[in-house]
Every structure is written in C-alpha cells, then in structure tokens.
Amino acid sequence: MDIRIEGVGKQFGETAALHPVDLVIPSGQLVALLGPSGSGKTTLLRLIAGLLPVDGGRILFGNHDATRLSLRERRVGFVFQHYALFPHLSVFENVAFGLRCRPRASRPDKATITRKVDELLGLVQMAGLRDRLPDQLSGGQKQRVALARAMAIDPTVLLLDEPFGALDAKVRVELRRWLRRFHDETGITTLFVTHDQEEALELADRVVVMSQGRIEQDGSPDAVYAEPATPFVYDFLGRSNQIAGKVLGGDFRAGEGGSAVPARDFVSGPATLFARPHDIDVVAPEAGLPATVSEVRSLAGRLILEAAVDGQARPVEVDLPYADRPAPQRGERIGLALRRYRVFPSASA
Ligand SMILES: Nc1ncnc2c1ncn2[C@@H]1O[C@H](COP(=O)(O)OP(=O)(O)OP(=O)(O)O)[C@@H](O)[C@H]1O
C-alpha cells in the first residue's frame, strides 16, 4: 500500500522537529530516511506510525485518510532500535503476542496462531530457536524476532527505526543484506530510519535525505549520490570538493585564469562549485581550472591527488584510476576538468 504525506509537520515548543513536508512512499518499496542526528527522521517515522499527532497536513494510507487513526488502527508494524522484546516470553510467544491480543472477534484460533508464528519464524530464520528467551539470543537474532513480531499483525507497512543501530559493524552488514532479501520475499512497503549513508545506499530502493527538519532530496540511491540536489547532500553523502568563485553570464569562474564552466540554470552572483573527487580529470593547465599538485598518493589501486587551485583556500582532491596516465608529480602545473559538478549560489553553500 502506498503512503502519501501531505504538508505534515511537527513542532515541539520552540523546536521545529519537522517543517511541513510532502512525500510519497510507493507501494512495495524499501525506502530509507537518511540524515544526521536531529534532522527529524524519527519524528517523521513516528508521525506515520500514529505514535505522535501531526500539527497539520494529512497522511494517506492508500486512499484512506489515516491522519487521525491510532497506531493499531493504521496496522503498522514497528521495530525499534532496542529490541523491545518481552524478556519473560519465549521467541514463539513474543511473535504470537500481537495475535493473542486481538479483540476476540478477529483473534485467530490456537492452531492458526501456531501455524502463522512458525511460518514467520521460518521467514526470519529463527525456527530452531522458538523456545528460547530473549536473553539467550544475540542482538541480530533479537532484531529478527522483533521483525517477525511486527509482521505477525499483517501490517500495511513496516516502519523500522535504526533497526541495526545497536549492533556491531559486521552483524549490521549481514543483517541489512538479510533485510533486503526479506523485503524482496514479502514485498511489504517498508520505511527505515538510518544515519548510515552506506546502509541507505546499499539497501534502499529510494533514499530520502533529511536535514534540519526538511527533506533535502528524495530519489534512487544512484541519483542522490551522483546528482545531489543541494550543497548539504553533496557534503553529507560521500566526498566532495568545494570551489569558490563567481557566475557571470551563466558561466562559473574560480579566478582570473583558466576556463569557465557553464553554471546551468544559475545566471550571476557569488557561487560555490561542488564536484566529487572521481568526477574530476587531469588535463593541460590551459584546458581546465589551473592548479598545482600539492600531494600524490596511491590508495587501493587508485591515485589520489591534492591540488591547490589558483586563488582557492582549500585544496581540491582528485581520485583517478591508477593506470590511466603517468602520475602527475608534486609541484606540477595541471588543469582540472570537471566531468560532473554543480554550482550553487554561495549563500546556500
Ligand atoms: N518529544 C520531544 N520533545 C522536544 N523535542 C523533541 C522531541 N522529539 C524530538 N525533538 C527534537 O526534534 C528534533 C528532531 O528529532 P528526531 O528525533 O526526529 O531526529 P532524528 O533525525 O531522528 O535524530 P537521531 O538520529 O538522533 O534519532 C531534534 O532537535 C529533537 O531534539
């Protein structure tokens, strides 16, 4: 079921945790909410879940207005960072809990509950541990049980708040691959919060990048990485260089000499150019932005250059395939040709 968020915001006293945002989560997709601490990810997730009332706007589940419905009425499956399993109940009973608590009229009979719980435990690969208590499980196993428990109510959507946040790095990587497979098998619309860019880019069909209570960009992992829409996204996702300059007549120039590059839709004013290290080529000085090589090192089969662009305070990092050409030497004059870049007005950089 797709979820549409229209003009939904949340204020806590003086703090705008979430400025009014619009967002569509298409049915069956695995979507990441990615951003630094305090950017409003958890607030947005809790608003969608019905754990917090909205200040304004609407939340639609399919064609139904769910804005005023409770968590239970929305039928969302929610998994928290800290497992939140009942410590005195076995794995089996933890998963069965949501089914046993249903109002009598919609409660399945005992045999159906057993069949369903065993099926779910098979799905999360925990069938062999069904009689254990949570204390006797690893962190990753507990999160898989939490996921099975969330799935037991046949949720319309699965909401996961930093589900692997408390696990060590190796288990995190294993579990996120497992979650991708789980999602592909079940096809359930899933939204998960993370501040780990690698996790979001590897796992999600779509990444929603947030900062300071706003959505900065919403797109495929490739799109948000290769075509960042704002200076924040450039900086937050992967490595980027910033070159200060000016746009005149639609062309960006870093200083007096060298070639200008088109600034696209931006016509004039002080500007900052953003480019990723691997989107820059080394050419003759007059054919690009003139610079002097200040450092050369090799790293895992790549050549990393640092170059001082004339008139710039910050050096520019260039990441080249190793065998491409003879390595430039420290002190050499070069030109930097930008394959992919974006120019933003300086005020927003
Ligand atoms: N119950 C609350 N009362 C007051 N302020 C709150 C409350 N919940 C969140 N905030 C504030 O709202 C802002 C957004 O918080 P939120 O938890 O949504 O961010 P987040 O991106 O999920 O961060 P983290 O990754 O650290 O969990 C923060 O400034 C936070 O301090």
Task: Enumerate how many helices there are, as a single number.
Answer: 9
Instruction: Write out the CATH superfamily name of the largest domain.
Output: P-loop containing nucleotide triphosphate hydrolases
Number of beta-strand segments: 20
Q: What is the level 1 CATH name of the largest domain?
A: Alpha Beta
H-E order: EEEHEEHEHHHEHEHEEHHEEEEEEEEEE
Structural class: alpha+beta
Which geometry do the CA atoms define?
Answer: elongated
How much of the sequence is in beta strands?
25-35%
Number of domains: 2
Keywords: ATP-binding, Nucleotide-binding, Sulfate transport, Translocase, Transport
GO molecular function: ABC-type sulfate transporter activity; ATP binding; ATP hydrolysis activity
InterPro entries: AAA+_ATPase (IPR003593), ABC_SmlMolc_Importer (IPR050093), ABC_transporter-like_ATP-bd (IPR003439), ABC_transporter-like_CS (IPR017871), Mo/tungstate-bd_C_term_dom (IPR008995), P-loop_NTPase (IPR027417), Sulph_transpt1 (IPR005666)
Organism: Arenimonas terrae
